[in-house]
Amino acid sequence: MTTTSETRDEPVVGATQKVQFIEAMGHVPTPVAIATTLEAGMPHGTTVSAFFSLSVEPPKFLLSLDQNSKLLEVVNRTRSIGLNVLDSAQGGLARRFASKLADRFDETPWSVESGVPRLDGAAVWLSGKVDRIVAAGDHFLVLVDATAVSARRDADPLTYRLRQLGTHRPVS
Question: What is the pTM assigned to this prediction?
Fold first, then answer.
């Protein structure tokens, strides 16, 4: 006779739960992008790793911004946003736009497309108009109606896992 015993993790609460949640989510690889907008001719942007396609018909995407994000304030006014999914060679840009630097766009090649900053060399480019912004815990979900999209077939998108930047490689 074969017996199996099932082990279940006990739920945890409080600060320990937060630490365990952050640690567990760190194991999940996520793509890395820079969200951008333009206000009064000034570019604004920040690194994001919580975004995904939401709908094909109509085309929509979603990204998550921290409740204290300066970009969130500006996007709430401009109602337009760009999403530059970074190439694996753009790790320096990911770090730069994740920093508190005021001049993130200095020495960063970019142009205005669809009314928002598009970074040169991005693996995927999306832009759109904000449909709505929804509070979700300590973040806000920005739902976007996509108005422009392009992708480089030769790109290896940048990913983030266990506090390290990397990329995806197919397995056989």
Answer: 0.86
What angle is formed at CA 153 by the lines to CA 160 and CA 113, rounded to 5 degrees?
85
* Angstrom distance (rounded) from CA 108 to CA 104: 7
Q: Give the start-to-end residue ranges of the domains of the chain.
A: 32-163
Q: Which of 40-49, 54-63, 107-116, 154-163 has the lowest mean pLDDT?
A: 154-163
Compute the distance between CA of residue 111 and CA of residue 108 in angstroms, rounded to an integer: 10
Which fold would CATH assign to domain 32-163?
Pnp Oxidase; Chain A (2.30.110)
What is the tens place of the pLDDT at every residue in 126-172? Answer: 999 999 999 999 999 999 999 999 999 999 999 988 888 889 878 87
| Closest among 166, 142, 168, 160 to 47, alpha carbons compared | 160
Query: Which value, in Å, is the radius of gyration of the alpha carbons in the chain?
Result: 18
